[in-house]
Amino acid sequence: MTRLVELEETGPRKLDPSDVDDEKGDIAVCQCGLSGSFPFCDGSHRRTRDEEDGTTYVYEDGERRAVERVVTADDDA
C-alpha cells in the first residue's frame, strides 16, 4: 500500500532511550506522513491499517480515497 505523501511507512520510528522527553515520554518519528504533529507521531498511522497492497491512497480533509493514477512532473504521460 502507498499513500500520496512523501513517506510510505505505516507506523512510527521510536528513537533511542536518550531521545525520551521527561514530559512527553517516548518520542516516535512519523513515517506515514499523516501526523498532525509532524515530524512526531501522533497515532495517525492507525488509519492505514486496512490499506490494500498495490493501491495508492490520498488523505484529504480527514477522508481517505484510492487514486487510480498518479502523474508526476517527471512522467511522460
Biggest sheet strand order reads: 1-4-5
Written as H for each helix and E for each strand, in order along the chain, the element string is: EEEEE
Provide the β-strand percentage band: 15-25%
Structural class estimated from helices and strands: mainly beta
Approximate helicity band? under 10%
Helical stretch tally: 0
Main beta-sheet strand count, sense and barrel state: 3 strands, mixed
**Unreliable parts:** none
Instruction: Work out the radius of gyration.
Output: 15 Å
Number of strand segments:
5
What number is the mean pLDDT?
A: 76
What does this structure look like?
The structure is a single chain. With 77 residues, this protein is an all-beta fold. The protein contains no helices and five strands. The chain has strands at 2-3, 13-14, 28-29, 56-60, 63-67. The protein has a three-stranded mixed β-sheet, with no helix packed on it. Strands 2-3 form a two-stranded antiparallel sheet. A hairpin with a 2-residue loop joins strand 4 and strand 5.
Descriptive keywords:
77 residues; 0% helix; two-stranded antiparallel sheet; mainly beta; 21% strand; 5 strands
What's the SSE blueprint?
Elements: E1 2-3, E2 13-14, E3 28-29, E4 56-60, E5 63-67
Parallel strand pairs: 1-4
Antiparallel strand pairs: 2-3, 4-5
Put the structure in a nutshell:
This protein is mainly beta.
